[in-house]
Every structure is written in structure tokens, then in C-alpha cells.
Amino acid sequence: MVEQKKYLLFLGVPDSEFAKKTYGGYHNVFVSLLGDEGEQWDSYRVVDGEFPDEKDLENYDGFVISGSSHDAFQDTDWILKLCDIIKKLDEMKKKVLGVCFGHQLIARVKGGKVGRARKGPELCLGNITIVKEAVAPENYFGEEVPANLRIIKCHQDEVLELPENAKLLAYSSMYEVEMYSIEDNFLCIQGHPEYNRDILIDILDRVLAGGHIKEDFAKTSKATLENNEADREFWQKICKNFLKGQPSKLV
């Protein structure tokens, strides 16, 4: 009998009303992108101080660190505790997928620099450029490596300096670091491969209603979605190949 694969999701964000009502929460949003039948997916709401027992980390095949409205350079208790767990997972050579806040936090733990985005925040459908010469078998792209990929962006911070042993995999006109890998156990993405247009529109409506962005900014952001969508299936392939140990056939 094949042993059941187990994955753990660290959630750095509470569920929005929209995510709860439409998907049953962000846990399900991630599992719909990354999960396969027969797998076990557990999640811990680390933003609320909910963490797994460290002795249980060994039982998981891979880990995902979600986005968050908190800054990855903050020193709040839960962020520092998550930093310690990332160090332990690194020592254990476990697979860790970092998304947005997760991408930034891994850079911080591994010696990079994270801070407020120099060109300002981004809430839109963005287009990132793949560093084709950096894409090697361990980077999980498969045989066809695109020049660009579209992904939903939702952040106000960025990785300012990569850790020393990180490999840059993608950049954009707004940010120098859109995606990177470290050895074969960290894959980090600034955008949100798990998001779709409806989730982005809900976020834009909420931050506009809260007075965090102006009407013009929201309009411009929503315009990026016109006749356009994220390359979600390609992102799904990359993330699954990484987490589940299926390297690409590129040489």
C-alpha cells in the first residue's frame, strides 16, 4: 500500500468573508491548486498563534507558507516563531513553497533583505519575465519554458536583496525579485499562484472601502483583468512539480 502523502499549510492571513462563503476558506483555495486525491492537507493559522508541534514536522512531505497583510520584516512573536520553523525545515531539507509574504520571509531567514516595495504596492494581474538561462531541471518548469507568465499580485513589500545562494528565476518592471529558488528545497514566488480574478476583485473592493487605496488605483488594477487572466494552470504545474518531487526534463 502506498503511504499517504502529507502537506502542511502555514496560513498568515484570516479568511475573508468572500473566501469563506465561496471556497470554505483559504485552506481550500490552496488545496484546489496544489492538492491531489488521496493526500492529507493540514493547515495552521500562524497569524493567530496556531502552530504545529515541532516533532510532527518530520511527518510532512512538503510545506506552503501563504501570503499575509503583515510585513515579513516585523518582529512580532508569530513571525519570529515561523522564522525558527523555516530554519528547522531548512536543516531537515524539507520542500517549502513560499508565496508572497512566505517568499519574503524565507529570503529574510536565509540572509536576504526585505522591505517596503521601492516602486509602490501592486494589486493587479501582473506579467513577470522568466530568467530562462537560470531555469534548470530542479526548477520544475517542464519542457516548455515561457518567456513570461501572468500572475495575480497583491503586496506592498518586496525582496530587496536575495540570499547569497538563491537563484533568481523571474523579475518584472516593478520588482527585481519575482521568483527564486534555493537549492532544491525552497521555491519562492512574489505573486499569488492560488488567486483568481474574483479573489483579487474582492480584495480591491475591501481595501478601497477601507480607505487604503484610491478609486483611480482600484480602477487601474481592475483594468489589468480585462480580456486577460493568470496562467494558473502553468503555476499549478510548477508548484506541484516542486512540492511533489517531479523535476523537469530540461538539461
From TrEMBL:
SUPFAM superfamilies: Class I glutamine amidotransferase-like
Domain Glutamine amidotransferase: 46-196
Superkingdom assignment: Eukaryota
Subcellular location: Cytoplasm, Cytosol
GO molecular function ontology, one term from the record: peptidase activity
Keyword Protease attached: yes
Associated pathway: Secondary metabolite biosynthesis
One Gene Ontology biological process: proteolysis
Entry keyword set: Cytoplasm, Hydrolase, Protease
Database matches in InterPro entries: ChyE-like, Class_I_gatase-like, GATASE
Assigned GO CC terms: cytosol
Sequence similarity: Belongs to the peptidase C26 family.
Protein name in the entry: Glutamine amidotransferase domain-containing protein
Source organism: Eutrema salsugineum
